[in-house]
Write a sequence for this structure.
């Protein structure tokens, strides 16, 4: 991983990719699944900070 790429992650300018999560696991810094879940939780939190468009419930199609 380049210094620039690592700097972007550490400074919150880039997320944890699955590849980086695997590298962190290989380095003994938690599990890849932990890192991917942390990133997914953060991404969801960011999305929840913005107003989402209205969604209509799906309707069942008669058989």
């Amino acid at each position: 991983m380049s210094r620039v790429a690592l700097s972007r992650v550490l400074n919150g300018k880039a997320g944890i990719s699955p590849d980086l999560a695997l590298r962190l696991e290989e380095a003994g810094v938690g599990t890849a699944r932990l890192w991917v879940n942390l990133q997914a939780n953060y991404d969801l939190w960011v999305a929840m900070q913005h107003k989402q468009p209205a969604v209509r419930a799906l309707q069942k199609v008669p058989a």
Summary: The radius of gyration is 18 Å. The helical segments are 3-10, 18-26, 32-48. The CA atoms of residues 6 and 15 lie 10 Å apart.
